[in-house]
Amino acid sequence: MWGNQALVLDILGWAGAVLLLLPYALVSIRRVAGDSFGYQGLNMIGSILLMANTAYYGAYPSAFVNLVWLGIALYAIRRSSNKALQHRAQGAGG
User: Which pairs count as long-range contacts for 69-75, CB under 8 Å and 24+ apart, including other chains?
Assistant: First the structure.
């Protein structure tokens, strides 16, 4: 791939950790909602970055946890989007 592959994946892993911990902290202090796109989007990006790092190092249980974390975030975004579409449809019809 490239010469400093391990360094790049370490940086991506640390960035992923920050992108998972930051939104968790923001939800915990009630600065963002747990079902917001911003929260779930940061969770998605963070889990992808951590998944790349853990898979590279062969930490497959951690990679699996991040895959599940990504799936949960995708499900939450889809569910929120569907609710928003339903809400708009009901408002337009009434």
Answer: 69/20, 69/43, 70/43, 70/44, 72/43, 73/40, 73/41, 73/43, 73/44, 73/47, 74/44
